[in-house]
Amino acid sequence: MKRIKNFNKTLVSSAVLFATMTLVGCSATSSTAMDQGKYADGIHDVSAKGKKGLITLTVEVKNGHIVDIKTKSHNETESLYLNAERLLSKIVAKNSHEGIDAVSGATFSSNGILEAVNSIPRRDGSQPAYVAVGSKEQSGDEDFKLKWSIQPQLGLLKGDYYYQEARFRQGHMGSVAIVTDSNNAEDVIFAEFNESGRPNYYTRLYQDVPKRMSEYNFSMGKKKGTAWVQSSLTMEKLMVEQDKLTFNLNPDYDPTLRNKLKEPNRLKYAGIDVVAGASNSIQQSMVPLTAKIHAQINGDGTKQRFYQHAEKLIDAKGNWTGITAMLRIVVDSDTKQIVKAHYDEIFADEKAQIKDASLKKFYRQSKYESINYVEPARIGFNVMIDGLNAHLQQGGSLFIIDDLPATGDTGSYAATGFTKRSSSWDNYLKQAEILYQEMRQDGMINEHKKK
Q1: Which of 53, 102, 184, 447 is 20–30 Å from 339 (CA)?
Q2: What pLDDT band is residue 272 in, cutting at 50, 70 and 90?
């Protein structure tokens, strides 16, 4: 089987806290420019007020240029300051704080950092006045700048399937699905982490709601400048590219430093890059669950086979509608019975790609996980798909689905709650036929009646 790497290759580099501090604008032939840097050489501790107190930075200057900045101390809210710290690499690259905007959701902390940099001693003895800056990401959804992709790999994906889930930290439910090459168990071809808010979550809207493809990421991004899913995508990419499911404890880990990610001793596990906003989820849920899967792969547990097919839905003119259909089926290798099934329709990563204007607001979400998506069939899309999963687990046919919600027009709305047939069922049946033929060819599923 050809090795498949199913991951989005693009994440916004400004969201990754391990940014390489590269000095920009100085080449090997520009020693004169290097000698004319504006700051006084040496190691300087500089401070300015953030939201809750002083922020103190340790800044190293060589040949007039800032070559390194570290946070020495602060009293800010930890998650907010983590995002403001993203400015440090930008300051090093520009050799200045000028022209740098504040991070959305961390404006006070950002200005504390920028003002502290403004106070670095200068060679000419000058001390310019500091002018506070704002964020370009503060004016609502249209200016939401964070980027990530939730698009599945198009076409067929199949292999051996492993799954673990467990609650952690006050009751959040974490889950990890891993697929390996059937001919090489060490070859990780798919990894997916998801988390549902705990049942007693302080925001009722997100109680028991999956975070991966729901509005949660936008809500979190606006508040904290980073989205939960970005950490998951970063870790999944690492696991697939390095075929890595276990991580060693960091011998320098200092729990008192919590999750200040710029320093190597601030993470519990070695060799991990995570984006601020989900480091607890990664360290407390994803890593332990993948370790269990690693043990499962190397044990004698019963294997299950994973099949996925995804394709873009096309309109009558042959254009992509901005929605991608995806069906996943897990079968027991011994009994040939379906043990898990999930169908979803996933909206494009950008509003402009979605043709139906009424659906543009659901970009980077899916019909199943979105809280606000309204299914025209007058029943919850998640109810439809949960019904499909139960139907197949109980031995029902992939194709005879008349007993499922919204498969036909029924009753009077005033009397019984009328439902229409959902067009998604026709999209599902097309994907089901594709996977069924593949599974039959592999001898991995019993015959399913079509009428």
Answers
A1: 184
A2: confident
Could you give the angle at which helices 87-94 and 107-118 cross, rounded to 10 degrees? Answer: 30
Task: List the structure tokens of 195.
Answer: 């988390």
Query: pLDDT tens, 168-206?
Result: 989 999 999 999 999 999 999 999 999 999 999 999 999
pLDDT digits (tens, 9 = 90+) for 338-397: 999 999 999 999 999 999 999 999 999 999 999 999 999 989 999 999 999 999 999 999
Mean pLDDT (whole number) for 37-44 = 91
Place of tokens 């420019």: 33
Instruction: Tell me, rounded to whole angstroms, the distance of Cα 295 from its chain centroid.
Output: 25
Across the chain, mean pLDDT equals: 86
| Contact between residue 361 and residue 350 where contact means Cβ atoms under 8 Å apart | no
Query: What are the φ and ψ backbone dihedral angles of 276, each rounded to 5 degrees?
Result: -55, 140
Is residue 298 predicted with pLDDT exceeding 80? yes
The three-state DSSP-derived secondary structure of the chain is: CCCCCCCCCCCCHHHCCCCCCCCCCCCCCCHHHHHCCCECCEEEEEEEECCCCEEEEEEEEECCEEEEEEEEECCCCHHHHHHHCCHHHHHHHHCCCCCCCCCCCCHHHHHHHHHHHHCCCECCCCCCCCCCCCCCCCCCHHHCCCCCCCCCCCEEEEEEEEEEEEEEHHHEEEEEEEEEECCEEEEEEEEEEEEECCCCCCCHHHCCCECCCCCHHHHHHHHHCCCHHHHHHHHHHHHHHHCCCCCCECCCCCHHHCCCCCCHHHCCECCCCCCCCCHHHHHHHHHHHHHHHHHHHCCCCCCEEEEEEEEEEECCCCCEEEEEEEEEEEEECCCCCEEEEEEEEEECCCHHHCCCHHHHHHCCCECCCCCCCCCCCCCCHHHHHHHHHHHHHCCCCCCCCCCCCCCCCECCHHHHCCECCCCHHHHHHHHHHHHHHHHHHCCCCCCCCCC
Query: 171 burial class (0-12, 13-18, 19+ CB within 10 angstroms)?
Result: middle
Query: How far apart are the C-alpha atoms of 400 and 108, rounded to whole Å?
Result: 59
Q: Which amino acid is at 200?
A: N
Of 164, 172, 160, nearest in space to 203 by CA: 172
211 neighbors 194 (Cβ within 8 angstroms): yes
Please tell me the number of Cα atoms within 13 Å of 17 on its side-chain side: 29
Question: 343 - beta bridge partners?
Answer: 327
Residue 19 has pLDDT above 70, yes or no: no
Distance CA 407, CA 395 (A): 18
Q: How confident is the model at residue 60 (pLDDT cuts 50, 70, 90)?
A: very high
